[in-house]
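Limitations
The structure tokens in this dataset are predictions for the assembled complex, not deposited experimental models. Users should treat interface geometry with appropriate caution, especially where small molecules or nucleic acid strands are included. An illustrative entry is reproduced here so readers can see what is and is not provided.
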Amino acid sequence: MDTLFTINNLWILIATVLVFIMHLGFATLEAGFVQKKNVVNILFKNCMIIAIGLLTYYLIGYNLMYPGEAFAGGFIGRIAPMDWAAAAVSEADSATSAMSGYTDFIFQGMFAATCATIVSGAVAERIKLMPFLIFSTLFVAIAYPITGMWHWGGGWLAEMGFYDFAGSTLVHAAGGFAALAAVILLGSRHDKYRKDGSMNVIPGHSMPLAAMGVFLLWFGWFGFNGGSVLSADPNAVGLVFVTTSLAAAAGAIGAFVCSYIMTKTYDLSMVLNGILGGLVGITAGADQMSGLESIMIGFIAGIIIPLSVVFFDRIKIDDPVGATSVHGICGIWGTLAVGIFGAKAGISQLGIQFIGTLAVGAFAFLASFGIMYALKLVMGIRVDVEEEIKGLDIGEHDMHAYSLKEDGIFQLTSE
Amino acid sequence: MDTLFTINNLWILIATVLVFIMHLGFATLEAGFVQKKNVVNILFKNCMIIAIGLLTYYLIGYNLMYPGEAFAGGFIGRIAPMDWAAAAVSEADSATSAMSGYTDFIFQGMFAATCATIVSGAVAERIKLMPFLIFSTLFVAIAYPITGMWHWGGGWLAEMGFYDFAGSTLVHAAGGFAALAAVILLGSRHDKYRKDGSMNVIPGHSMPLAAMGVFLLWFGWFGFNGGSVLSADPNAVGLVFVTTSLAAAAGAIGAFVCSYIMTKTYDLSMVLNGILGGLVGITAGADQMSGLESIMIGFIAGIIIPLSVVFFDRIKIDDPVGATSVHGICGIWGTLAVGIFGAKAGISQLGIQFIGTLAVGAFAFLASFGIMYALKLVMGIRVDVEEEIKGLDIGEHDMHAYSLKEDGIFQLTSE
Amino acid sequence: MDTLFTINNLWILIATVLVFIMHLGFATLEAGFVQKKNVVNILFKNCMIIAIGLLTYYLIGYNLMYPGEAFAGGFIGRIAPMDWAAAAVSEADSATSAMSGYTDFIFQGMFAATCATIVSGAVAERIKLMPFLIFSTLFVAIAYPITGMWHWGGGWLAEMGFYDFAGSTLVHAAGGFAALAAVILLGSRHDKYRKDGSMNVIPGHSMPLAAMGVFLLWFGWFGFNGGSVLSADPNAVGLVFVTTSLAAAAGAIGAFVCSYIMTKTYDLSMVLNGILGGLVGITAGADQMSGLESIMIGFIAGIIIPLSVVFFDRIKIDDPVGATSVHGICGIWGTLAVGIFGAKAGISQLGIQFIGTLAVGAFAFLASFGIMYALKLVMGIRVDVEEEIKGLDIGEHDMHAYSLKEDGIFQLTSE
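Predicted assembly:
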């Protein structure tokens, strides 16, 4: 085998492993930000999403998203399972290939599942399990690969010159706007907004879990962005690591400063989401920016976070983890930033970026809205208020997340 | 140095790091599944096992397991510490070597310790610390390398044509059957099975910890299976990543469906163990299967989990984390699956697989039984019932896992 | 691009990712070892430190630490941001380069931030947030790069023949002695030492978090030490993996034995810190030792831990996480061990090691003392005793780490 091919392929495999662990990052972040009574439910959903995501991507998503050159400029790929027999690269072809077909599939498959996961946090604490799983299946199997194909699969956005390096729009804004549609249909948690216009703060049950999630997501983002170089090129991957890290760091500072000005407290949730906002923001142009540009993009994303979170609460969009702000709004910001900063900056590029993020965001919103609306009609998407009060862990799973009773007392659970 | 050698060696080192973090996966999985009062004890054991495992593997295990060609077809390797002086590969030999001796040792050493860890979950909440540590030392230093040598060290099972790619039998079934022997000798937790034949459900104290464990184990499994290719071959490692992931995903679905049919609830513990069952199941043939075959193997493993867990409870084998089902039963299933699916499928291969898994499982069972029985005679292996009720954290460690008293109250712990 | 260059660069990038996750390791370790009422504060600090560390290293630290050959033998580097334009390596130069400038920066930047993190654990539970953040900024931007330059940047210690492979002194002892100075100025927690000379044991709030931290730190240490080879050389990186792991394992055993002799209990905190002590101890000579020497170094480090922890408590240095023992004392031990064991052992080398660790430790101590003293005069560094009793989470962040109230009870937090 060609050695450079082997190195490039190895890096994509390792990046796959890093993107995989983002699913643990999402699981702990969301679990930390919800109430104790809904933790089993969140963990259950996050286990199922990765399972559903990989299986549907194998069965349909991969070829829908990467249909090959015959579909260039198009709107939709082909419907077929992954081409197992053709996935191996021959030694003769290895010098001109980027990676084996297996590697390409598993790297892209890990990406696909993250998109559905973004939704799960926003709809937490009141969505019914089964409709959510059906939604996830349809969204990750069909909706995500269609818009993904528009750019990465060589579709019409690619043709138009749209640029989204690792998915500020294709993954994050898509997930964020799908989440927004779902939240609108679902409504807020029953005790979130009061009739007098004031709001109930519902704190997450575990800040260590939430913080762990953010660190794991940053960790995985080295694979998410670094792997999107699609080779182990020492300059390109190195540059992406630096821009990604500086933007995340600046996102923390931006959210720290902005939330301190707004509330005069040092708000951990805002700093955590500021890091994520910085990461989402740099994702579209991680290979295009200088160090200072990365810092500016991340810092602005960090400032956006508290403003956006407050804005969504004002308009009574109840998103327990801030996914619409982090992934939706910062996803748009990052996409537009490619037209403002870096090698591609320019008014016409900015226009293209605007069209691309609008098109993908709108499609994701409408697809999500359509699926959720149908599910609402057919089976209902929301648990009843008694179950919501009691918690979904007991309502849906007959289980508690924690058994923290005092030590040393003998408790027979039934007799 | 030869570049392909350098790449291959690098991948095995990275795989080593991934297998290492499986020990955190086991630690959090087991900690999550036990009661709050035994958490320090589990963490302590898991810290000591990795320490004991690496040191004994250096001192004796490595050469017992990989004695070299002179021992081909044999039953036992040689007793000697790792050959430090001979571990470096010369530049001249690099083109024909797979990895350096250091790399080989550390990759295999990480594997060895996992085998003893499997036992620790099954015997949790009532085994005495010191005898368990002695057991682990003997098991990982002697028993695991002996059966490991039979196949991977070129022993009689290798000669016979037995196939176990990354250890469904050599690691998982061995650990699972060692666990079974230990549980039989140890007996169930005092409050698990009631005289009227009914059973007490003893819930784990933290589902987030357990879920974290499963994600970390899957994460590490990319190194466990992917590293077992013993090179960075782009087709082979890519294929193994895909089969491993699809089987894990299908394991989740299998356990979801089967446990829902059995109990009409969405059982998180079962889905978590279903993922692990899928991973254990694919491990023997991860390099032999197609995508669909991997899905079938994983799905069946997932179905096995709830059935096996119920079965062991019926026969009063009390295994708090389900290790006998996940590692023992799914380890057998995965080994047999090599004779049913994939390139090696066939009735004679199935027979060989059966003999191999039976031989290794029986040896592990007997070795574990023997060691535990001796320890039982000499020093006792079980804490008394008062300590069991009070919890091993206080009984063995004089420590609580958590101090979660209310904030803002000043508590002097003694005066 | 040259393939060996590409492999070497790739390994350093992956090592960077591993060192990054050490920040989660520190965050969970420290969070686990503090009281529940100060957990948000610790997490907040750890998020900000990595952000501050990376940004200041970009703006000033990198060139202060690695000023280039013109500064050989000197005491201080040059003040300038990272040279973005010059960071890419041309194809022509790739055969003779170790890694790209981006890769070098981000790997070193991840190291820099760990040094400040070491301090955060020692001063936990009573330091004010803002002065700590200012301290961290100055320490990581200026103090760490100055002593770092003395050895790794080609300064006077390098010229003298001092040897510190991956930072037992430059990172760990520097951090440990900076912590010591800060603790001396800050004073002990108000309820730690009683007037009658006895001591209040203040247990950490979560052993699972602490254990997770140790496993994640070990995990990251493969990148910390392995990446310090600065290439993917199969013998060198493999050797470092083995020595690092054996020392960590022996550290666990050393602390286990020593703490059992001292207290007759199996003390999890000591074993956890013993592992870290072993890791810190091997860091200066990880590429110089044989397997047995690594075991000896780690074992002695493990023995040091309980002795040092007791010693610091005797002299009323209140360090909630044991950072001065783990990083300070074991950092010195590891540095001296290079003069005692391995290829460089010898009385003159031992003398040089002693001078080096003394010089760096003294500089870090004085720099930390100076910065903290100035902050104490200007703004105060310690929260008042009411806030300390109530907890810094409420005092500084108006937030609880956990909301663990009973499920199913509807609580309106305000009306």
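Some entries come with short summary sentences. For this one: Chain C has 14 helices and no strands.
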